[in-house]
Structure formats: C-alpha cells, structure tokens
Amino acid sequence: MKLHDKILLEHGGGGQLTGELIEQVFLPRLGNPHLMQLTDSALVAIGDQRICFTTDSYVVSPLFFPGGDIGSLAVHGTVNDLAVCGAQPLFLSAGFIIEEGFATAQLEQIVDSMASAAALAGVQVVTGDTKVVPHGATDGLYITTSGIGRFVYDKPLSPSTIRPGDAVIVNGPVGDHGAAILCARQDLGFLSTVLSDSAPLGSLVRNILNASPHIHCMRDATRGGLGAVLAEIAQQSGHDIFARENDIPLRESVRGICEMLGFDPLYLANEGKLVVFCAADDAPAVLAAMHSHELGHEATRIGTVQESGRGRVVLTTLIGGERVIDRPTGELVPRIC
Amino acid sequence: MKLHDKILLEHGGGGQLTGELIEQVFLPRLGNPHLMQLTDSALVAIGDQRICFTTDSYVVSPLFFPGGDIGSLAVHGTVNDLAVCGAQPLFLSAGFIIEEGFATAQLEQIVDSMASAAALAGVQVVTGDTKVVPHGATDGLYITTSGIGRFVYDKPLSPSTIRPGDAVIVNGPVGDHGAAILCARQDLGFLSTVLSDSAPLGSLVRNILNASPHIHCMRDATRGGLGAVLAEIAQQSGHDIFARENDIPLRESVRGICEMLGFDPLYLANEGKLVVFCAADDAPAVLAAMHSHELGHEATRIGTVQESGRGRVVLTTLIGGERVIDRPTGELVPRIC
C-alpha cells in the first residue's frame, strides 16, 4: 500500500498503519536480522551472552491515571517486553523530555513511581538523560525507557514456533488499562473503579516458563489490545487462531464503559496482560502455574491454533456466530501509553 | 540549593541546574551504584560480560542543519557516549515521538541519515518504537536512542583516575556544532560555511586506547561545550586543570559567529569532539595516534592537570590573564541536541 504523505495518529497506534511505517520506512533503511524479527525485543549476542534489548517511548495522557502514572508505566512496559521474549529484565535507561514550566513536584512523584516499579520488578535504572523543551514544544513530559535483560529460556519464543493444536492462554481480564485511561480522560467519575492493570510480568513469566518446556510464544497485549496481538501473531505464524468470545475474561465495569462509549474491549490496551501459546498437553500445567501467581489467578484458555495457512483470528461470538478479528487500522484511543 | 518549583530550560542544559536535578530528584530516588557513577554510560555486568549502556533524547531544532540532522546526531551522540567510556558500540535502539502531520518524506530522510551514520559507526539499530502525538503536542520529531557496547579497555576510565601531571588533549576545533545550529536557526546565510562536527568517534577512540595504557579519562564535549566538560571533570577529580586559551583549537568562522552573537565558544556544543586525559609521558604517542585519524588530525594538547584539591579549571587567556571556567548555569543555546 502506498505510504501516506503525512504521518497520521494511526501510524503510532500499533495497528496496520504502524506496520506499514515499519515495513516501508524503517526496515528498508535500518534492516538487519535483529530488527527483521519484529519482536518486542531484539535478541543480540555480546561475547557468549545472549541479551535482549528493547525500547519504548511513553506519551500517555493524562500522566496520572487510576492504577498508575507515566513513571510506573514506563518501567512496566519495558520490563514486560523483555519478559515475554524469555529474558530476565536487569537494567533500564530512562530519557526524559520535559516541557519548560512542568511542576517539579509532579516530576518527583513520577520518578518516585518509577523507582517503586523498578524495585518491584527487580531492575535498576542505571543511566538516563533529561532534555527540557520550551513551553508548547511538548505536552508535559515524555519518557523513553530502554531495557536489557539476560535471555534465560533455552528455546526460541516466536510466532514461527507456534504449532497447530497449541493452546492460547491469557492471564486475566482484558481492556482495563484502556478503560482506566478513557475514564481519567473523560472525567467519568462514576466509573472510576476501573484501575489500569499496569504491572510487571517478569515473575509471572518465570512461573510460566518453569511450568512447561513447550512454551512457543508470548506477547504482552498492549497497544491495540488482545485483538491486535492475536491478529499480528496469527499473520506472522501463518496459522489460524480460533477463540471463543465467551472465554475471554472481561470485567463487567469495562464492558459497561465500552458499551457506553462505543469501544470494542478486544482492542483496548492492556499493560499487565500477556498471551501465551503452548503445547495443548501442557496447558493445564501452565494454567496452574499462572493461577498460583497474583497476576495470573484469572488466567483462562481462550482458544486453539489451527492449521490453515491463512493466518486469521476467528472469534466465535457470544451468540454463536463467527467473526474475523483484523489488526485495527490504528489505535482506538491515542496516547494510551 | 533549593530546587525550583518549575522545570526551567536550564534544567536540560547539561550545566549546574541539570546537576541539581540529577542530585535532588533522580539520584535520591533511583540511586544505585551504576547510576551514582554519573558517567555518560553505565557499566554493568551480564554473566561474564562487561557491558556499557547509555541513552540520550534528541530534541534538536531545526531537525536539519549544516553537517547533519537529528537522525545522524542521534546515532553519533549515543555511539560517542559508549566510545568515551571505553566500549565498542554494538547495538542501538531508537524511539521516535512524531507530531501528527509530520511529512513522511522528512521522516524517510532522517531514517536514511540514521542508517548511514549507523553503518559508518559499525553499529546496528536492532529495536525501536514509534509514537505519534496530536499536532501541537510535540515539535516535529524527537528521537531517543539507547546503545549497548562491549567494554574493551581493561583499565578504569573516570575522573577519579586522573592524576596530577596528566596531559589534557582535545581532538580538534571546538564549537562547530553549536555555531552550525545557531546559523541554521538565525538564517545567517552568509555564515553557512560552518558545518556541525557531528561524527562517530569510535574508531578514533580505538586509536587513542591502542596508543597508551595510561589513558585515564575521556569525555565527549557535547552540551555545555568544552568549558562545561572540563569544569565537571575538574570538580569530580578534585584536581585543578590548567589550560591555555591560545592552545584551544577554534575556527575563525566560529570565532566570528561568537563575536557577532555574543557567545563564548568554550561553552558551545560539539558532537564530534572529545577530551582525553592521559599520562604526560604518553601524550606524544596519543597525539600521534590522533593525528593519523581523520577526526583527530587537528588534535592539540590544551593543558595539564595540577594537584590542588580545589577542582577548578583555570584558563590562561590570550592576553596572559587567568580566568576560572565554571560550569554554565544552563545551556547557551536550547535544543542544541
């Protein structure tokens, strides 16, 4: 598809247009075997060590939301990108771009939050940078965190490793982060019981990897939600994923917000949810391991991988129909992370 | 000193106020032995490998300037931070924050420039992220690059390793980057022969490290220029640095721009200049190694370290007087990098 002349909001949404930007602008120019993997983290070798390396820029609005803030989000997001690639997160960097006039007390609160999140996730922020731009040249504060971790799982974790028959598991209800941001932004005070699920998934991932030697792929379902992640993985694996809408965990409160505002919870962002693809025989053990962890006690098997070569996600709806889940064009809610 | 209630432009300038922000906001909260080193890169261990890790956010304005653009700058800056710490730069990440409506052709030009700079520096961009924010929520495009490299010098390189008697060497004329940005910004067309010195210093650093086992410290003289870097290193080392203004290489064109606009070239940013502290006996060999490299053929010894415990930089001026060089409060020119 021909690239747009101007960058649209949807180019940053993690959906189809982000894919086009990556395929048409970044890969042809910067392409190398690491980047071509298109995973959340690059796996690189330094000496005899296999190291995962990842980066994410955080531009969430508002900076403070129920269940977290940009500081904790910037730690969790980067730690989770490392964890789902099979790495133990170790060290983070943080680059701050701050608008002139930003309240120092708010910055202190955000850095406090980063520090707590890092301590909980067992990582250290070891290097950083601060730039201040004139009033109006940014919106408050943006943080870019990069992370490095040691690769600890001795098998490849990628869509190409997924096999027909694999179980598809999610660790809990979807859409909480997106719903919390929507509530915070639209001042829906009466719905403010929805908290972001923003959380570090490293120790849950360790449980999962210890439970089975046949984990084939994991991905955290952030921008674009569970729908975008499943559609992307199905496409990359070449297999169809069949899921049952009825089995996808969803809070009543999030369902209500989505119905009221007209959003599909399947495409709402998460910041503490991951999808696991594993051999079906191991699914009970993996589920048991997840259930024993506080971030996985609502883990549910939502579907199965089927051979077809079409790379689609087919959802059996509540009323028994079938619906193909595409990658969203862009993002339902801009500046969600 | 009491922290300001609001973040000022000077907090991002690499000078005294940046130091206060680091010491009063970041270190007390995120502090760990790696961060406390306050070097451009953190030195961390992963297994048996010693790895350098660094990050910088680039907010330069304008995005394109004589001698480079934000893409090449974002590669050079990060590669140089690794190199001066004694590491071989290997892998970069790149996080883009783009304003909605940004011209795709300009983005392509910037990514082309990153790719060329990375190839020249012998590094790969292995992972990245793109966020798009609504029109007005950023100024065009910001890039945050992080880098990892393998530590290759078997001695510590830091201000605390500097000894009285050490030679102080700079690899060429100072202030070119700052002058080029000033010209581009003020549309001083008639002075447009000044090009940014933005360049990757990795191979020059290899020459330097191979020339002497007694290199004690290196630092790239970016934000705040040579003046800020010398003042910071003197303070950290506890020794005085005596330099001769007459020996500091400076282009006539840059001197002219500074005289016209009222800037001190000593505080103008560089993006391809470094300061080397080495044992005086090895200075001739280090200078010879630098002279044989295209980025060091104007290398000059500009001063000597003296014992005093006061940590000052004393400059003998052109007319024979003495002037103490302090860390600047902020930055002469905001958004220089």
Structure description:
The structure is a homodimer. The first copy, chain A, folds into 2 domains: about 40-150, PurM-like, N-terminal domain (60s Ribosomal Protein L30, Chain: A); about 160-325, PurM-like C-terminal domain (Phosphoribosyl-aminoimidazole Synthetase, Chain A, domain 2), CATH 3.90.650. The first copy, chain A, has a 7-stranded mixed β-sheet. In chain A, strands 1-2-7-5-6 form a 5-stranded mixed β-sheet, with helices on one face. Chain A has helices at about 15-30, 35, 70-85, 105-120, 175-185, 200-210, 225-235, 250-260, 285-290, and strands at about 40-45, 50-60, 65, 70, 85-100, 125-135, 140-150, 165-170, 215-220, 240-245, 275-280, 300-305, 315, 320-325. In chain A, helix 3 runs parallel beside helix 4. Chain A is of the alpha+beta class and about 325 residues long. In chain A, strand 13 and strand 14 form a beta hairpin. The longest helix of chain A has 18 residues, at about 105-120. At the A-B interface, helix 1, strand 1, strand 2, strand 5 and helix 4 of A face helix 1, strand 1, strand 2, strand 5 and helix 4 of B.
